[in-house]
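Researcher: I need the complex structure. Ligand is zinc ion. Inputs:
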Amino acid sequence: MQITANDQTKATTMKALVYHGPGRRAWEDRPKPTIIEATDAIVRITTTTICGTDLHILKGDLPTVAVGRILGHEGVGIIEEIGANVLSFHKGDKVIISCVTSCGRCSFCRKGMYSHCSTGGWILVYQIDGTQAEYVRIPYADNSLYAQPPETDDEAATMLSDILPTGHECGVLNGQVKPGDVVAIVGAGPIGLSALLTAQLYSPAEIIMIDLDDNRLKVALSLGATKMVNSSDGKAVERVMALTQGAGVDAAIEAVGVPATFGICQAIVAAGGRIANVGVHGKPVELHLETLWSHNITLTTRLVDTVTTPMLLKTVRSGRLNPKKLVSHRFELSEMMKAYDTFGNAAKEHALKVVLKNTCA
Ligand SMILES: NC(=O)c1ccc[n+]([C@@H]2O[C@H](COP(=O)([O-])OP(=O)(O)OC[C@H]3O[C@@H](n4cnc5c(N)ncnc54)[C@H](O)[C@@H]3O)[C@@H](O)[C@H]2O)c1
Ligand SMILES: [Zn+2]
Ligand SMILES: [Zn+2]
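Model: Output:
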């Protein structure tokens, strides 16, 4: 028997990637989400992807994530149903789901700090079911979804859910990247590479990419990095100082989240420079104020707000930015378990972003 899209709409269950405690995940049947608040929308997922954060959750690094939670916080889809108070979207609209849910009305949202929305923020996965499923419920749909222009590629649009705004806001904007700057990005994962792509919107003179993985460094060179440093021999600082004639870098973007890489940033930042921390740190780091106190530096931290998504969407739409280049592997949505195996072995598989498409949607 053939199942048509219409039958699928009527079904009350769907497939989803469910977290069953540390190290355990399953692609299984779950009830289809329904509207709970009048500001909700139900989105039928057409493209989604896996993030390093999903792997952290699976390892048990984020114990607040409940067993039974559907993973994923990135994706694009088609609106299936809207609550009575959703004004900007209609059934059938193509939308980009922001990884950050925001009411648009609380004092934090009014300051553009959507990540700290008093009734939203980064709640997909942490507090509510995520996007690695056939359907997802998105609260505050008017502010948490973006209309996807018809000519925009789904894979490129998926990169706007999280990684592109994260690299741009937490790395490039906080690092105040300007024309002529020398920038170093520590970590050439999807986030560091997104910082690399968006930094080029501001015409820095040099972008030095630092990582342990030669394959990722090669990708970085193909995406516009001017120099690469493999830090596996512990000599990243000396190399960057040599590349900058002893001056250091104007902006050091930390896109890993471990003490060693934060240490590199502190050692290579030039006088008057900025350290923009993007990485999520699980352990304390040493802050070397004994050397930095006189260095006129700025240190920033940020949880992505996704406030620059509309601007980034325009650059993607015009072709100025092509985040599709970050997609290394493609799967059917139903191949979710296989996609996790690939992404979980990123170094061996040369994986960056693995994209899953619901071709039945
Ligand atoms: N601030 C935010 O809002 C926000 C949002 C999303 C992700 N993040 C964080 O950004 C960081 C990067 O995310 P990602 O998905 O690109 O991660 P990833 O694990 O895919 O990439 C990290 C890269 O760092 C490299 N690396 C690891 N240790 C290193 C070392 N000692 N020296 C140099 N390179 C090293 C790895 O080879 C890898 O290429 C993570 O900590 C993630 O949690 C932050
Ligand atoms: Zn993510
Ligand atoms: Zn809010």
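Model: Summary of the prediction. The longest helix spans residues 163-173.
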